[in-house]
Write a structure and sequence with these properties.
Blueprint: H1 2-17, H2 43-53, E1 55-56, H3 66-72, E2 74-75, H4 77-92, E3 97-103, E4 106-113, E5 116-117, E6 122-130, H5 134-141
Parallel strand pairs: 1-2
Antiparallel strand pairs: 3-4, 3-6, 4-5
Helix pairs in contact: 2-4, 3-4
């Protein structure tokens, strides 16, 4: 019986692994970026572009790659923050961070790019996920 349970758990794990998100680091890959941002080295320009061009959707779970958010032109706060970080990296070659925080409206994700958190009304920062650790963070949060 014990061996059967072990085999069952292993089978479920193996089957489930095919649908698990990739942690190969491609979350930030973008095919292109907005033309008006290509020469920008200002984080505020990028944050403003995302706010103006990506429709905010209020849902708690789920991370999309920056490419998906850019293509769909919509996403939650986490997806918008990931897109900001990805655009910053694509345009400047500099790495940003994903910030998990308490915002005046509740739990929230935002980006730290250009050395600054551009978000207002943050009451407390719970976690700072550095660029090179974001893929693994997303993987374990899915």
């Amino acid at each position: 019986m014990r061996n059967f349970l072990i085999l069952l758990v292993m089978a479920i794990f193996i089957i489930g692994c095919d649908s698990m998100p990739s942690i190969d680091g491609d979350w930030h890959k973008l095919d292109d970026s907005p033309n008006n941002l290509n020469n920008s080295n200002n984080g505020l320009d990028i944050v403003s572009w995302v706010i103006d061009n990506i429709e905010y959707e209020c849902y708690a779970n789920g991370f999309n790659t920056a490419r998906e958010t850019y293509k769909k032109r919509s996403g939650n706060c986490a997806n918008m923050a990931l897109l900001e970080i990805a655009l910053w990296y694509k345009i400047t070659g500099k790495k940003g961070s994903l910030i998990y925080c308490l915002h005046k409206n509740g739990l929230h994700y935002c980006a730290k790019i250009d050395g600054k958190i551009w978000e207002t009304n943050i009451e407390e920062i719970y976690d700072v996920i550095e660029f090179d650790n974001i893929a693994e963070f997303i993987y374990y949060r899915q």
